[in-house]
Design a protein that fits this description.
Blueprint (H helix, E strand, L loop, with lengths): L6 H38 L3 H43 L14 H5 L14 H9 L12 E8 L5 E4 L4 E4 L2 E2 L14 H12 L3 E5 L11 E7 L2 E2 H7 L4 E2 L9 H14 L7
Parallel strand pairs: 3-6
Antiparallel strand pairs: 1-2, 1-5, 2-3, 4-8, 5-6, 6-7
Helix pairs in contact: 1-2, 1-7, 2-7
Length: 272
Amino acid sequence: MTAPLTTQSLRRAQAHLDQTRQEAQEAIQKIFARRAALYREGIAASSQRIRLALARQVNGLDEESGGWKVTLQLVEHQIQLLGRLIWAMEVGERPDRPPLAGVDWLEALAVVPTQAAVGWISRIRQYLDLLIGPSLATETAGPREEIALAVRVPDGDGLVLADGRRVRYIGIDAPEMTTWEGPPEPFARQAKAANQQWVVGQRVRLVRDVSEVDRYGRLLRFVYVGETLVNAELLKAGLARALSIQPDTGRALEFQALEWEARRKGKGLWGA
């Protein structure tokens, strides 16, 4: 039997989560600082061997940073849900009745080290799937390769297929066409134009790494036109940055090296 919930036990859980959030934020800041230093070393490196060694270090930092980011996201949701539950208890609302029925605070408490969490551990997986979407839960759906017709591109790192499915290129991040401030980011239009020239009207070969889709339902793919890997061509032209996100890191080291080479040559983004 689980111990009864009290506002005191929940506030202790909140304090623990606040501490975890601070630790995660500090860890991410340190990783970013180290990553920036490695980037500078990679740009200045005189040999491919040194650049690849540095790329491996960056890839390791990206993996570590990704873990901390997931932790931070989870903790933020837990804090919000606990706040709602504390409010409900203080005003006399029961969490198993409307308007709080269905709120996922049970799953939030399942990963908080308090007595109140006992008995709810089996629900952690459900909460994680809900919180971070299908990208970490779905790894093997669909064929590893397929050929499909690309009909348009929304930006420099995605395309739309004839059947309406959207594709997000693995391992790269092009400048955004739409931003909160309004105008596109520098070189966003050039990246979109290059991507359009490569793929629109072409039967492209789509190759999956690990994940099937991201949290927005877009297919995650390496995109080939003939034997040309479009993801890589955009990096070579300096129209995208290397972006390593677990678990789809099969070409992370190669892509990191391509970005550094484009930086060294002052291509695209790196010559502005």
